[in-house]
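Q: Can I see a sequence and its folded structure?
A: Here is a first one.
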Amino acid sequence: MPIATDPLSRIFFALADPTRRAMLERLASGPATVGELAEPFAMSRPAVSQHLGVLEQAGLIERTRQGQWRSCALRPEGLDDAEAWVQQHRAAWQSRFDRLDETLAALVGDQSGARAAHRRRAGASVGDTNDQADRDVGEPKEQ
């Protein structure tokens, strides 16, 4: 598995795994020992340690050692880069969606104008028929 080298990639790599996200959720309520973090998971201690290493390299947690106990604590500021990236891209996508809405509105407006011009060119009797057909759309037919 390739190791991410830039900080943002490390953060998203760490967050991509549901086990690591569950560990972060647990740490949101306060520091925990490695044993406490490992408890809900059916995995070996080395696997837990590897997950914690990924979280630590991403800057999302810090591990400390007090005697024989190792504890972990959440570093909420570790998400700052990811949050900034998401906000920047959300703004860009929102701008694109706004432009798409404007384009679609212009196209719908052009189609309405084209229909009206066609009706004017075709004459009032055809236009009256089209107007009546437009009003009848969706109404049940009489039998």
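Q: Show me another, different protein.
A: A second, unrelated one:
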Amino acid sequence: MYRRTFLGVASAAAAGLAGCTEGGVRPPKAGFPAPGNPDPVVAQGFPKTVCGAPPNPVDGVRAIVDPAVASGWAGRRVDAKYRFGDDPEPGLYDGSFVVGVERGGAARAYPLSVLWWHEVVNDSLGGDPLFVSYCPMCQSGLVAERVVDGAPTTFLVSGQLWQPPATRGFTSAAEGRVFGASVLTGDAELRNAANLVLYDEATGSYWSQLLATGICGPQSGEELAVLPSSVTTWAEWRADHPDTDVLLPPPWSETT
């Protein structure tokens, strides 16, 4: 029995702890938009100046851009930071919480212990390009198509934070665009707090994770196509999806 299943909102774009990357982040191809043309909702959140702040590559969270998967983590020695709760050592256990996704007859689990550190996983499943994102500070998760202007792209963590208006943030959760989750308990209420800001490599637009919506740049006001997902334990997901695979943490999965 899943702890919670999120149906998502398939609203494709009408026209087509803080996250940050370590090392040299690739700048937006189109150049960062001028601060004078944000989506109007930006002025209702905090900080109002987020559209004028370029991606900030400081040490910290590194998005996964080339994921590796396997049937499990058995026999692999993983970094100690991927241990949470009562796990006797770093690894993937029956009680580990995962975000489960099904697409095109394929099933995959994304451990929250990995998402907690990397916040964004760019992937393809069942022939569909998608990304899975998690904001530890807000306890908010998002699974969506990684498609902008009709073409697949890569989503990265800008290093910026932005808190949307509370009514918009909680409405987004109520309508199924984002969900609450916890590494320790699985189910959780999300917090409308300083939320990670994503950006896409194709246009350089900024996207609010909580709103699943573009807030700065050419895609301002566009909504991501949100995909169904489940938060459950690894044992429960595996029992219901015997052919599932699971995301491997770095160094098997590559980050940027």
